[in-house]
């Protein structure tokens, strides 16, 4: 698409992108993914996936719509109520929101676990280092001593004491096969995906149709605000969230515009 | 976006992508762009741009809608009537439709000219070689001895006997600034772009809202069919094409679905 080419590619640091640029968020996102590819964190196809997401975000108005905010609050409540919440990290997530995921893990006492579609030891190590540089103390996904049933490929690999035994899992930017396999294991899935029609949000208990760079900090803010909430209040927030309505509102927004 | 990750990334040749895959066209496109990046033809940001395009194509139904077919026929008529038609080639165009652009150039007696946003001698040479491997005999854009007025960056560079003096220019996947600058030079612009709201199709005489991998072969087919048509017939096809209606139909399709 043409619009992507209107800012030169020679921005070295994200601070060089003017904050008042009308497409600041999109340019920042693209720059972070590009840096991720260069660092070996993000697969080249992650650049394509991010471009795809950026078109949906453009149609969504590049803002957190009310139903997405409600989903993010419900997701925060799920994480706070969980016995063992895990935040799944792939190459795009690590490139886009490394510090923000660490903050969310801290706010909800969740584990961070790396899980890659195109898994190599080098990428796993690069992502673990990147997360630690952004404040992570423990990073799971390196052991990979358990398997998600009924799933081919490397992405079936998980940690036995991580995603395998988690009750609530945040899977941002996840592929449909894996989202379905996790759902079949009976886990409560929280999915971030900008296309409300793709399979991952369709199978999620909480589908969050929002840009991950807005969604994750907002989830952390909700979690911090709800830190002292009782179980009843958290359950009430979860009950009040209507996943069908959220998916419909997101699709309606994308289809019909503002 | 998640859906992009459902086919493994280790496809080495495009023949390995199953033709009956429901997302064959998208996978083929992504593979060609990825190969382009690896070959030094396509800038990394081209992968992002293509991903962005793929989302619009998904919403469009991944088919050439009737108004796009009409635009492609009108564009073919413009190229056939032109005194000096030029087809502009950037890194994504070269990666996606090298042979198809050569065929279109042959069918309309047009020049092929390389023009890059992120211009380097290496990329220019790689693209020229790639086009020649796909049958191109003459490739312009290497001299770069003229400039498009009122345009910064490397993309102002054009050949004096190419785009600079052309009367009709096909600019696929072009950025808005350059499309506007060419329009200001009084050229008849034919633009291929999957987002009907971006500036390039908005300023084009003929906006073609279609995937380039469908659009270019279809333009060549129209040109071949119209090879013996008289001026009157070609002018009639151009007159009958309504650019506003085409833009509206494309937006309507993207917004409301099938």
What do we call the CATH topology of the largest domain in chain A? Rossmann fold
Low-confidence stretches of chain A: 1-9
CATH top level of the largest domain in chain A? Answer: Alpha Beta
Strand element count of chain A: 7
What number of structural domains do the residues of chain A give?
A: 2
Strand percentage of chain A lies at: 5-15%
Q: What is the assigned CATH homologous superfamily of the largest domain in chain A?
A: Phosphopantoate/pantothenate synthetase
Question: Could you tell me how far the N terminus lies from the C terminus of chain A, measured between alpha carbons in angstroms?
Answer: 22 Å
- How would you sum up the major sheet of chain A? 5 strands, parallel
Strand order within the widest sheet of chain A? 2-1-5-6-7
Mean pLDDT of chain A: 90
Percent in helix of chain A: 40-55%
Large-scale geometry of chain A? globular
User: What is the tally of helical segments of chain A?
Assistant: 11
Oligomer: homodimer
Q: Helices and strands of chain A, in N-to-C order?
A: HHHEHHEHEEEHEHEHHH
What does the radius of gyration of chain A come to? Answer: 17 Å
- Secondary structure class of chain A reads alpha/beta
Question: Most extensive interface: pair and counts?
Answer: A-B, 47 and 47 residues
């Amino acid at each position: 698409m043409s619009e992507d080419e209107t800012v030169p590619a020679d921005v070295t640091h994200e601070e060089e992108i003017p904050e008042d640029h009308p497409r600041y968020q999109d340019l920042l996102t693209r720059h972070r993914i590009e840096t991720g590819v260069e660092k070996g964190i993000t697969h080249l196809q992650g650049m394509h996936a991010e471009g795809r997401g950026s078109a949906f975000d453009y149609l969504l108005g590049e803002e957190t719509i009310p139903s997405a905010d409600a989903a993010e609050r419900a997701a925060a409540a799920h994480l706070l109520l969980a016995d063992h919440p895990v935040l799944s990290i792939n190459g795009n997530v690590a490139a886009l929101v490394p510090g923000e995921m660490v903050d969310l893990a801290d706010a909800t006492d969740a584990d961070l676990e790396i899980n890659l579609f195109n898994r190599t030891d080098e990428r796993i190590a690069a992502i673990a280092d990147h997360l630690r540089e952004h404040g992570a103390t423990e990073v799971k996904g390196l052991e990979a001593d358990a398997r998600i049933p009924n799933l081919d490929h490397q992405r079936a690999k998980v940690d036995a004491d991580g995603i395998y035994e988690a009750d609530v899992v945040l899977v941002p930017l996840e592929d449909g096969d894996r989202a379905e396999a996790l759902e079949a294991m009976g886990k409560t899935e929280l999915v971030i995906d900008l296309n409300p029609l793709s399979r991952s949000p369709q199978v999620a208990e909480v589908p969050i149709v929002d840009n991950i760079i807005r969604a994750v900090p907002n989830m952390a803010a909700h979690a911090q605000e709800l830190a002292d909430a009782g179980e009843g209040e958290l359950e009430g927030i979860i009950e009040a969230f209507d996943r069908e309505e959220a998916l419909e509102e997101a699709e309606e927004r994308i289809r019909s515009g503002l």
